[in-house]
Each structure stands twice: as C-alpha cells, then as structure tokens.
Design a protein that fits this description.
It contains 3 helices and no strands. The protein is mainly alpha-helical.
C-alpha cells in the first residue's frame, strides 16, 4: 500500500513537471515567433554595444572636467605663445570638444 501511494505521488509530480516543461516550450516558441531569437553573435554584439555606450557616457561625464582642463591648457599655451587674437577656450579649427577630449584621453 505504501509503495502504491509513493508511486501515485511520483506519477503526479512527474505529470506536473511535464506540463510545466511543455508550457515553457510553448512560451519559448511564441516568443521566437514574435521576436525572433538572437544568435549568439548578435547577442554578443548587442552586449558589446551597450557596454561601449555606457563607457562613452561615463567618459562624457568625465570629459566635461577634462575639456575644462584642456581649454585652460590651450588658453595658457595661447598666452604663452603670444597669440593675442585667440579667443579664450579656442581650439584648433575642425576640432570639437569631444574630439579634443578624446585626444587627451588617448
């Protein structure tokens, strides 16, 4: 009798596990049909892009301070070289603030 009860419990737990696995497969198939599954390479590309975006955002936050320091250095260089016509914070033509900070960071 005890073995019959154990067997019934085992069978019912297996049925529950089987139905749960079947439901997961159905959800997975629906998700794939709706959104398409990503390949491993595409997933890695997206993660790398997100990481690069976060790094750029972090550098931009820090870049504001670096740009201020760079502008001060350029003003000092302009005054040391005797360039009277240079405006405060002037950069080389064609150089943006982001470009100047990237030059400094590299």
């Amino acid at each position: 009798m005890l073995s019959a009860e154990l067997m019934c419990d085992r069978i019912s737990s297996l049925k529950k596990a089987n139905s749960a696995a079947l439901a997961r497969r159905r959800r997975s198939k629906r998700r794939i049909q709706k959104h398409r599954v990503l390949t491993k390479g595409a997933r890695e590309d997206i993660l790398a892009q997100n990481e690069a975006d976060q790094q750029i955002a972090h550098e931009e936050r820090q870049g504001r301070l670096i740009a201020l320091l760079l502008d001060k250095e350029e003003r000092d260089q302009a005054s040391a070289s005797g360039l009277k016509g240079a405006a405060p914070g002037a950069r080389r033509p064609g150089t943006t603030r982001a470009h100047a900070t990237l030059i400094l960071l590299i």
